[in-house]
Design brief:
It contains 9 helices and 12 strands. The chain is α/β, with parallel strands linked by helices. Helix 1 runs parallel beside helix 5. The longest helix is centred in the middle third of the chain and has 23 residues. The radius of gyration is 18 Å and the shape is globular.
Length: 255
C-alpha cells in the first residue's frame, strides 16, 4: 500500500514507479483524508509514503494524514520525498510523526526532481535542460530504490540533506511553513483566465471555488501550487513575483 501526495506530478511519478515495481496499491492522500477505519495491511504487504518537500518540511496535509490514521500489521515501511535541491531534515520530521503511531521507516529516500517552488524570491524554476537532466538522474535513482524496496532492505537512508539542514528546515523552512503556507498570496488575472475550472477541480483541500477562481480561505491550503502550475492560461499568480510554470507531464511531452 503506497500513499502519496503530489502537486506538479514529480512525486506521483515516483510513486507510480514504486507501484509498478512492487505491484502494490497506490492511494492519493487527499482522497484518504477522513478515512475512519484502520488500514490493515495484507501479509507481506509493504507500507510506503511518497511526498514532496515543502519548505524543507513534509507538507501539512501529509502530516495531518499520519496523525489521523491508524495502520495495522505493518511489517515493512519506507518513505520517499522529492525535492528540487535538498530536503533538509524533512524526513526527520516525518519520522517523528510516524513514531507517534508506533511506526518507523525501514528505508528512507530523497529524489531530486525539477524545481517547482515559486514562493521564495531566491528560488527559480530549472531550465528545460537542467530539468531533463534531473529527471534522467531520477530515473536511475528510482531503479535502485525500487530494488531496495523489493528486497525489503532495512536500515537504508539515502537522503539529500544539504549543507545546513537545521537552518533549512527549522529557520528558513520554519518561517516559510508558518507564514507562507497560505492561500492569501494567490491571485488571478481576470483577463487571462479562461474559466475552465481546472484549478478548483485539482485543489486537494477544496479551497477554490468558481471561475474565475476564488480562494475561500478555509485554512487548509497546503501551498502545493497545483492551481498555479496546472493553469492552462497561466492566469494564476503567487504574490508580486511573476514566474514561469512547471509540470512533469509537459516536460516529458517535450522530449
Amino acid at each position: 500500500m503506497i500513499f502519496y501526495f503530489s502537486g506538479t506530478g514529480n512525486t506521483k511519478w515516483a510513486a507510480q514507479q514504486l507501484a509498478t515495481a512492487t505491484g502494490e496499491e497506490l492511494r492519493y492522500i487527499p482522497d484518504e483524508l477522513g478515512h475512519a477505519e484502520p488500514y490493515v495491511l495484507k501479509e507481506g504487504e509493504r507500507l510506503g509514503f511518497c511526498f514532496p518537500t515543502h519548505g524543507w518540511q513534509p507538507p501539512r496535509i501529509v502530516r495531518e494524514f499520519i496523525r489521523q490514521t491508524t495502520f495495522e500489521h505493518v511489517g515493512y515501511c519506507y518513505a520517499l520525498t522529492t525535492c528540487g535541491d535538498n530536503m533538509g531534515y524533512a524526513m526527520r520530521i516525518f519520522d517523528k510523526e510516524l513514531g507517534k503511531k508506533g511506526l518507523h521507516t525501514d528505508a528512507r529516500f530523497a529524489v531530486v526532481m525539477p524545481e517547482s517552488n515559486v514562493c521564495f524570491s531566491f528560488l527559480h524554476l530549472d531550465t528545460d535542460e537542467k530539468a531533463r537532466q534531473k529527471v534522467e538522474a531520477a530515473r536511475q535513482r528510482m531503479t535502485h530504490i525500487c530494488q531496495v524496496i523489493q528486497e525489503r532492505q532495512r536500515g537504508v537512508e539515502e537522503l539529500v540533506k544539504g549543507a545546513i539542514p537545521y537552518t533549512y528546515t527549522y529557520i528558513i523552512g520554519g518561517y516559510y511553513n508558518k507564514h507562507l503556507i497560505t492561500d492569501q498570496h494567490f491571485w488571478v488575472d481576470q483577463e487571462a483566465c479562461i474559466q475552465c475550472g481546472l484549478c478548483q477541480k485539482l485543489c486537494p483541500v477544496c479551497d477554490i471555488k468558481g471561475a474565475p477562481p476564488v480562494w475561500i480561505h478555509n485554512g487548509r491550503c497546503t501551498n502545493c501550487l497545483a492551481c498555479y502550475h496546472h493553469c492552462p492560461a497561466h492566469a494564476i499568480h503567487w504574490g508580486s513575483m511573476k514566474r514561469g510554470q512547471y509540470l512533469l507531464s509537459k516536460l516529458l511531452d517535450r522530449r
